[in-house]
Design goal:
Blueprint lengths: L3 H23 L6 H4 L12 E5 L5 E6 L2 E6 L5 E6 H10 L11 E2 L5 E6 L2 E6 L4 E7 L5 E5 L6 E5 L2 E6 L2 E4 L8 E3 L14 E3 L5 E8 L5 E6 L6 E6 L9 E8 L4 E4 L9 E7 L5 E7 L5 E8 L5 E9 L11 E2 L6 E6 L6 E6 L4 E4 L7 E8 L3 E6 L8 E6 L4 E4 L6 E6 L5 E8 L2 E9 L4 E6 L13 E7 L5 E7 L10 E6 L19 H8 L3 E5 L9 H5 L8 H14 L4 E11 L1 H12 L6 E5 L10 H8 L6 H7 L11 E7 L8 H12 L5 E5 L10 H16 L1
Parallel strand pairs: 38-39, 38-40, 40-41, 41-42, 42-43
Antiparallel strand pairs: 1-2, 2-3, 3-4, 5-6, 6-7, 7-8, 9-10, 10-11, 11-12, 13-15, 14-15, 15-18, 16-17, 18-19, 20-21, 21-22, 22-23, 24-25, 25-26, 26-27, 28-29, 29-30, 30-31, 32-33, 33-34, 34-35, 36-37, 37-39
Helix pairs in contact: 6-7
């Protein structure tokens, strides 16, 4: 007769079998097109919503279930600040429409915050529960810059600049010619420029870009949605051609007058790093010549526009690339921090407003990637690659002690929100072994508490094994690589390879972050039975000035050599089928894909190139001339890089994809390639996405991924 214990043992055994069966089945999940286009929220790494510090306190806030809570950093006690019902009570009492969900709030004080609903700004005091309307903007307002100090907002409607106070709108500029553009980004968003409106510290003046592009050639983009297709011109200054002319105006809200900074000649120059001085009397502009090899940091009188002085100059035999404003010290208003690559790596330098270098704050064979701000009375925080080029960690620098402290103890790619006194850090990061994790840290990097444990949303999916390693370039430089093996990998088999490439400046594909920096699509390809390989060649980001500038005046040469180093390595692997290597890339990666296919004929069996630059003379001034100079001054470089000169070398299968309304790499690039191929009797496959720009976004992205995947499955 069986005992009760025996029954329990049998039941336990059955439960274990069922659980294990569930785990096995769970691990059989495969990525779908919905997954890789991020339409399935279940595979997103978990987030803590609206995580931020409450004013200048040591309390941090976060949102959950339509409520906002605050937590004491020191004690860990959690308190409800307010919820949606409390906000709506305030909205109702003030005669405003109810909110359907908790809005995204910003704490500008210890006891209050502001938020927007539609085009209206509100302030909410969560101590007195008082809610009031601050400002209302027109529905057509764009490029909005809100001033937290005053509640005023500046914005654009079409090509003109406006501002609103208490809902009363006033117009600053009145240019009827659409070729004169005010208050918007200029220089095609190069040089770190992400806005065109700059409030003075006191909120009493507005600096703004004025772009005159009337002299720039119109480039036709065709809208096929009208019964008769219509031309929608955009301004597109191609390399070596006439470019836009930019000035900086300052509008005084009291006198309702505008003065322009007298930035002088030549007019085809770049106005970068626009920064107000702390007292609002001066404007600082880093003037960069069109050749982009000579920078002058200049000071102007904001009241008159008069040039005051040049603080210092930087020059290079290749190029100088300013990407940051001046960061003035809160307690030393005549001193500021400046980013420069002049020692070979992007580092922080302390200057005074006489242009005198006081000291170099950071130094080493690594780069500072982000300036996070001033905290307390002594600390600055920044992000850098000091632990290795694949990582981004947070560091503090003591202005008094002149010491650097690493504040994020875990390897990986970090973001941070720092308390006003600099004592605490809200750290959020991922790495090759952490999907996403949130921690509260001390300034010294000690973990005070884990706010959210890592939880891998892909734990139940079959994922290809990923590894990161280095190879040596021909000059001995380390090249970082990522390799993803096919799912159910068998080292006795031979597998085809897809090389995924970008290869251009301002991009780094291999990182110490979740999935090694790869998008889910690359793991989807591994799921189809491919080895997927990526290498960051010379010319790519976060490796220092000389690593990037290797490509100067000769795009496509060093990059190809480095990518072929990767291919040579792949051919040494016993499980790689060297006769079945494909390559895929978009934009600069499209240029690289076609370059590899044509300039290394016979190596790649299949290639897919999206939005490719085919000839750099068809690319725009700012980016193109930085790396290639002009067709007039560098004809040999343009000739060598032009893929039209290698069409007769085409072997294997090539698919080119382009958005018909691409305003970045204009459609003309791939059409010229197609025309040349036809003329030379060369066959290729060609596919366009009508109406799409420089990439295929939205629901059509699944179609794009299916198109690329099927092309490789059918031909590789």
């Amino acid at each position: 007769m069986k005992t009760r214990k025996s029954y329990y043992n049998i039941i336990f055994f059955i439960v274990v079998l069922l659980v294990n069966a569930g785990i096995v089945n769970g691990q059989e999940k495969l990525l779908t097109l919905e997954d890789i286009t991020y339409q399935n929220p279940a595979i997103f790494p978990a987030r803590i919503h609206q995580l931020q510090w409450v004013g200048e306190t040591d309390d941090y806030a976060f949102a959950k279930e339509n409520a906002l809570y605050k937590v004491s950093a020191k004690r860990g006690t959690e308190t409800l600040l307010f919820d949606l019902d409390m906000l709506n009570k305030g909205m109702h009492n003030s005669g405003f429409d109810s909110l359907k969900r908790l809005p995204s709030v910003t704490f500008n004080q210890d006891k209050s915050c502001w938020f927007t609903s539609g085009n209206t700004y509100y302030a909410y005091d969560f101590n007195s529960f008082e809610l009031k309307k601050i400002n209302t903007l027109p529905d057509t307002a764009k490029n909005i810059e809100y001033n937290q100090r005053t509640g005023f907002a500046a914005f654009t409607i079409k090509n003109n600049l406006y501002y609103a106070i208490n809902g009363q709108v006033k117009q600053i500029t009145s240019d009827e010619d659409p070729g004169i553009v005010n208050g918007q980004t200029v220089h095609r968003n190069e040089f770190g420029i992400d806005k065109g409106i700059f409030w003075a510290p006191a909120g009493n003046k507005i600096a703004f870009y004025r772009k005159d592009e009337t002299m720039v050639a119109d480039y036709p983009l065709v809208n096929i949605d009208t019964r008769i297709a219509t031309v929608e011109n955009t301004k597109y200054p191609m390399a070596g051609m006439t470019s836009e002319q930019v000035t900086l105006g300052v509008y005084d809200l009291a006198s309702h007058s505008t003065v322009f900074m007298k930035t002088g000649e030549p007019k085809e120059q770049y106005l970068t790093s626009v920064t107000w001085g702390p007292d609002g009397k001066y404007i600082y502009i880093a003037l960069l010549n069109r050749d982009q090899n000579h920078l002058k940091l200049t000071q102007y009188d904001a009241a008159t526009g008069n040039f005051v002085k040049t603080l210092f100059e930087e020059s290079s035999t290749k190029y100088v690339e300013p990407e940051h404003p001046l960061y003035f010290l809160p307690e030393q208003k005549d001193q500021f921090i400046w980013f420069s690559e002049k020692d070979g790596y992007d580092h922080l330098y302390l200057y005074n407003t006489n242009g005198e270098l006081m000291k170099q704050l950071t130094k080493g064979d690594w780069v500072v990637t982000d300036f996070l701000g001033f905290y307390g009375d002594d600390l600055i925080y920044f992000k850098a690659t000091a632990e290795g080029p694949l990582q981004k960690n947070v560091y503090s620098y003591s202005l008094k002690k002149e010491t650097i402290t690493r504040s994020t103890p875990d390897h990986g790619t970090h973001g941070a929100r720092i308390s006003k006194d600099g004592k605490y850090i809200l750290d959020y990061y991922s790495s090759t072994d952490v999907t996403r994790e949130y921690k509260l840290l001390s300034s010294k990097g000690k973990t005070i508490r884990v706010l959210q444990q890592d939880a891998n949303p892909l734990a139940d999916y079959k994922m290809g094994e990923m590894s990161i390693f280095t190879l040596k370039a021909e000059d001995g430089t380390d090249l970082y690589c990522r390799l993803i093996k096919p799912v159910d990998f068998d080292n006795t088999k031979k597998y085809p390879v897809i090389v995924y490439v970008y290869g251009g400046p301002h991009a780094q594909l291999v990182t110490d972050s979740w999935l090694g920096g790869a998008r889910l699509y690359l793991y989807y390809l591994a799921q189809q039975g491919y080895v997927v390989f990526t290498l960051d060649n010379r010319g790519s980001a976060n490796r220092g000035r000389d690593f990037e500038q290797t490509i100067f005046r000769n795009c496509g040469t060093a990059e190809i050599a480095d990518q072929m180093t990767g291919v040579d390595y792949l051919k040494t692997l016993s499980y790689v089928d060297a006769d079945r290597i494909g390559v895929d890339g978009w934009s600069y990666g499209g240029f690289m894909t076609v370059s590899l296919m044509l300039r290394e004929p016979g190596v790649f069996k299949v290639a897919v190139a999206g939005g490719p630059v085919i000839d750099w003379k068809y690319y725009e001034v700012m980016y193109g001339e930085r790396y290639m100079d002009t067709p007039q001054t560098n004809p040999e470089g343009y000739e060598k890089a032009s893929l039209l000169n290698y069409v007769d070398k085409l072997e294997g299968k090539l698919l080119i994809i382009h958005g018909t309304n691409d305003p970045t790499v204009v459609w003309q690039n791939s059409l010229q390639f197609l025309k040349t191929a036809i003329g030379k009797g060369k066959q290729l496959d060609y596919f366009v996405y009508p109406g799409h720009g420089h990439n295929v976004r939205g629901v059509d992205r699944a179609h794009l991924y299916e198109k690329i995947t099927n092309y490789f499955l059918e031909n590789l």
